[in-house]
Specification:
about 350 residues; alpha/beta; seven-stranded parallel sheet; two-stranded parallel ribbon; 15 strands
Length: about 350
C-alpha cells in the first residue's frame, strides 16, 4: 500500500514499483483537481505509463478522515491483504498553524496505522530536517537532540517520528524510516511537477532580475552554511532499493547527497545564470520595494540559508543507489533552471495533479 502517490516523491517511487512483481494498492484522495482515477491518469501520462491504471488497485480515501475515509469492507480487505505500507502522504507546507499541518502529518499517520495490519512492514517517509536547527552532526539513529525547529513542517514531521517509533517500540524490525533531503527535479533533465523550496527562491530572483537587471538583491545567509539538495529520481531509486531488500529493513536512512552545497557556491551559481547581484545583508530603505516584499514572502525558505545540520549517512552508504546520488552541481543546476524557464515555472507544463 502506497500513500502520497500523487505527490512528487511518491509518484517517482510508484514509477519504480511498477517494474516489480508486487501487487500495488494506492490510497488516493479526491481533490478539486480531479477524482483519484483522473489524477492517476495524469500520472500515467507524465511517466508514459499506459499500463499504470491496470497495474494498481485504487482506494479512494483520505488520511484526514476517520478510518482514512474507507468503508468497513475496504478496511477489512486491506487488513487481510496488505503486507507492506509505504507512507509518503504529507503536508509539505512550511507556512500555516502547527495544528493544521500536524493534522495531516501526525494525525494522518496515526489514522493510517489504525487501518493497516499490525504485522505489516511500515516504510515511513520522514525528512532529514527533523534535525531542525541542530547545528552539529545529526546521525541516522538521532531524533530528539534538543533541537529547535524553523517551521511547523519540521516540527510536525519530528512529532510524527516520535509517535511512530513509540507505536513500533515492541516490533522495531517492522519500521523503516526514510529521511530525504531537499528534493528537486530529475537528475537527467530537471523535470518536476512541483515547484517549492529552492524553486520559490529562484523564481523570486529571476522576477527581480527581469525588472531590475544587474541590480543588488539583499538577503541574509551564512556563506559557510550548506544546502542538501537531492534529485527526485535518485531519492526514489534509493527508496525502491530499500523496499526491495530485506537486509535493509528496520533502519533509518538519510537520503541526502554528499557533499552538501555551500551557500557561497550556490550564490555564485545563481549570479552566473540570473542577472542579479546577491548582497549578504537585510533589505533596507535603499533597496527596491520588490526586494523587501520578496524576502518577506520567501522567508520560510530563505531561513534554510542560515545553516543546517550535517547529516551522517552510514546506513545510506550501504545502498548501491547511493553511489549514483550526485550533489547539486553546475550541470544539474542548469538543467533545473532550464526546465523551470521552459515550463514558465510550472504554469505551462502539460501535467497537473
Amino acid at each position: 500500500l502506497l500513500t502520497g502517490a500523487t505527490g512528487l516523491l511518491g509518484a517517482y517511487l510508484l514509477d519504480r514499483l511498477l517494474d516489480t512483481p508486487h501487487e500495488l494498492h494506492l490510497l488516493v484522495r479526491p481533490t478539486p483537481a480531479g477524482t483519484p482515477g483522473e489524477r492517476l491518469g495524469r500520472l500515467a501520462q507524465y511517466f508514459h505509463r499506459p499500463d499504470l491504471p491496470g497495474r494498481v488497485r485504487l482506494h479512494c480515501g483520505d488520511v484526514l478522515r476517520p478510518g482514512v475515509d474507507l468503508g468497513p469492507a475496504s478496511r477489512e480487505y486491506l487488513r487481510d491483504t496488505i503486507t507492506d505500507v509505504i507512507h509518503a502522504a504529507a503536508c509539505v507546507a512550511f507556512e500555516g498553524p502547527l495544528q493544521r499541518i500536524r493534522e495531516t502529518n501526525l494525525g494522518g499517520t496515526r489514522r493510517l496505522l489504525e487501518v493497516v495490519p499490525a504485522a505489516a512492514r511500515f516504510f515511513h517517509v520522514s525528512t532529514a530536517y527533523v534535525a531542525g536547527r541542530h547545528g552539529g552532526l545529526f546521525r541516522e539513529a538521532d531524533l530528539g537532540v534538543g533541537q529547535s525547529f524553523r517551521n511547523s513542517y519540521e516540527r510536525s514531521k519530528f512529532d510524527t517520528e516520535v509517535m511512530i517509533r513509540e507505536a513500533f517500540a515492541e516490533r522495531p524490525g517492522l519500521l523503516t524510516v526514510l529521511r530525504p533531503g531537499i528534493v528537486v527535479g530529475e537528475s537527467g533533465n530537471g523535470r518536476t511537477f512541483q515547484f517549492h523550496g529552492l524553486y520559490r527562491v529562484l523564481r523570486l530572483l529571476e522576477a527581480f532580475a527581469r525588472r531590475f537587471p544587474g541590480e543588488d538583491f539583499c538577503l541574509t545567509y551564512d556563506p559557510e552554511g550548506t544546502q542538501n539538495y537531492v534529485a527526485v529520481d535518485q531519492v526514489a531509486e534509493m527508496m525502491a532499493e530499500i523496499v526491495a531488500s530485506p537486509e535493509l529493513w528496520g533502519s533509518t536512512y538519510h537520503l541526502t547527497s554528499e557533499p552538501a552545497l555551500l551557500n557561497e557556491r550556490l550564490r555564485g551559481m545563481i549570479e552566473s545564470r540570473i542577472p542579479v547581484r546577491i548582497r549578504n545583508r537585510a533589505p533596507d530603505a535603499a533597496c527596491r520595494p520588490l526586494n523587501a516584499a520578496g524576502v518577506r514572502r520567501a522567508a520560510p525558505y530563505l531561513d534554510y540559508l542560515h545553516g543546517e545540520a550535517r547529516f551522517a549517512c552510514e546506513n545510506r552508504n550501504r545502498l548501491r543507489a547511493a553511489a549514483r546520488c550526485a550533489p547539486l552541481d553546475e550541470d544539474l543546476f542548469d538543467r533545473l533552471l532550464e526546465y523551470c524557464r521552459r515550463t514558465r515555472w510550472g504554469y505551462a507544463r502539460e501535467f497537473r495533479r
